[in-house]
Design goal:
Blueprint: E1 11-15, H1 42-54, E2 59-63, H2 73-81, E3 88-93, H3 98-107, E4 112-116, H4 122-129, H5 134-147, E5 153-158, H6 167-172, E6 180-185, H7 204-209, E7 214-219, E8 222-226, E9 233-237, E10 250-253, E11 258-260, E12 269-270, H8 276-288, H9 308-311
Parallel strand pairs: 1-2, 1-10, 2-3, 3-4, 4-5, 5-6, 6-9
Antiparallel strand pairs: 7-8, 8-9, 10-11, 11-12
Helix pairs in contact: 1-2, 1-8, 3-5
């Protein structure tokens, strides 16, 4: 389906929970409590996904919060994998529960994983996540490999004065592993909406830190680079410095059933309680509402009214 800007919308980011077992400083910091909204049931999530596929969606990514804390997640994956027309089913996770769940998720039909990892320093990891252990996420990456997941993406949010001194170390992960390591510019949304300007580092810092990187193309909204001869790739996702709204092909549905045509839109369209043709038409209407672009700058934070964990990261 096309939106009013002529963009083909074929990617649904479906949040399954607003709960998380971490308390990352830029998303759900200490003192913030998720789980205040009534979540859609697994059946409701599958019904919305089915209607979205009827509108042209071909790729579904499950998000949160932390999706792996949602009971019955593998059952939902099996339901989504069975939908005719779904070409790719993916999950974004902090990786901490993959040692227990990677094999089950692979067996349930999940094609690919994105693993969030913002530092390779154990002490800094504990501080950034509020309660996490770096070793657990690294074990999750190993478990994903062992379960047969390929082309795993590592998502690293660039934060000035926090992890921009680790760029070289992160890129080194791609020497021997076929990961796609993606540096994502920090966006002023939720907890970090009013952080100091020095936290918002342009992704150009990666190219300055690692001049050996060479451009090799694009993948979705990610500009791809590689050091010749290395196994993996490096992606730059630049929502702040190189706005890619004209190429955006996604819509989001929150865990409580609100369709958000743009991450930064000030409102959404409630889907809960809709069924059949009414649900399909509501999704079509939501796609039609997708704005031409966001208005983010360091001085102009997101208009979303919700934090990332409340929308779906």
């Amino acid at each position: 389906m096309f939106d009013l800007q002529g963009r083909t919308i074929e990617y649904l980011r479906l949040s399954v929970t607003d709960r998380c077992n971490y308390r990352c400083a830029y998303c759900m910091p200490a003192g913030v409590c998720g789980g205040l909204r009534e979540l859609l049931s697994l059946g409701e999530l599958a019904e919305i996904a089915r209607a979205a596929v009827a509108c042209g969606v071909r790729k579904i990514r499950l998000t949160g919060g932390e999706p792996l804390v949602r009971p019955g997640l593998a059952d939902l994956c099996r339901m989504l994998r069975a939908l005719p027309g779904v070409e790719e089913l993916a999950i974004t996770t902090n990786g901490s529960l993959l040692p227990q769940l990677a094999g089950e998720l692979k067996g349930a039909g999940v094609d690919r994983l994105n693993v969030s990892l913002d530092t390779l320093n154990a002490d800094k990891f504990a501080a950034l996540t509020g309660c996490g252990e770096l070793a657990q996420t690294l074990a999750g990456l190993e478990a994903a490999d062992a379960a047969g997941f390929r082309d795993t993406k590592i998502n690293t949010v660039l934060m000035g004065g926090v992890n921009d001194d680790e760029i070289v170390d992160f890129v080194a992960l791609t020497r021997d592993h076929p990961y796609c390591l993606r540096f994502i510019e920090l966006m002023p949304i939720g907890a970090c909406a009013h952080w100091p300007a020095e936290r918002f580092v342009k992704a150009d810092a990666v190219l300055r830190a690692v001049p050996a990187l060479r451009p090799i193309g694009v993948s979705g909204v990610s500009e791809l680079y590689q050091i010749p001869g290395w196994a993996g790739t490096v992606g730059l996702i630049r929502p702040m410095s190189h706005r890619f709204c004209a190429k955006c092909d996604r819509v989001r549905v929150t865990a409580d059933g609100v369709l958000r045509p743009c991450l930064h839109a000030p409102d959404g369209l409630p889907l809960r309680g809709l069924h059949g043709d009414a649900l399909v038409e509501a999704i079509r209407e939501g796609i039609a509402r997708k704005p031409a672009c966001h208005h983010l700058t360091v001085d102009c934070p997101s208009e979303s009214g919700r934090a990332m964990y409340e929308i779906g990261g």
